Structure formats: structure tokens, C-alpha cells
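FYI - complex with zinc ion, inputs then prediction.
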Amino acid sequence: MVPNQQVGGSSPSSGTKHMLHVIPVNDTIKHEASFDCVCGPTQRVFAKGIMVKHHSMDGREKVERMTGEGVPGKTWRVVED
Ligand SMILES: [Zn+2]
């Protein structure tokens, strides 16, 4: 048996910024957690890191903006890099 290394609880404190990808689930295209994603994600830089907001191809953002609520089955996933 290999002894378990302690996982979690410790965050990297090397000064590297966190990167968060906000990716639409069940979209019509496949998104990659990358700046080079085909949807042309928008980058927003914050003090603690960079948020990469991907754009859905099914227009769920517009529905959410208009109705103030999400589309059933069309949610968002946050991927930490
Ligand atoms: Zn994307």
C-alpha cells in the first residue's frame, strides 16, 4: 500500500493567479478550458485571478438576461485551472 499523500486543504501559494473557466454545459459545441476555445471566450482579470467566460452557441445568456433565470438543462460549469 502506498501511504496517502495529504490531498486538498493546501492551496498553491506560489503567486500564480487562479484561472476560472465558466463553460456552458450541454452546448451545441464542445468547449475547451482554454483561451483558444472556438467560442472566443472573454477574459476578465481580477485581483485574485483571471475569469474566462465562454460563450454558449445556443444563446442561453440572452434568455438568462431576459428572464432572470437559467434555462433548464442548460447550466454553467466552472473549471478551475
Ligand atoms: Zn468556449
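The chain is about 10% helix and 25% strand. The helical segments are 60-67.
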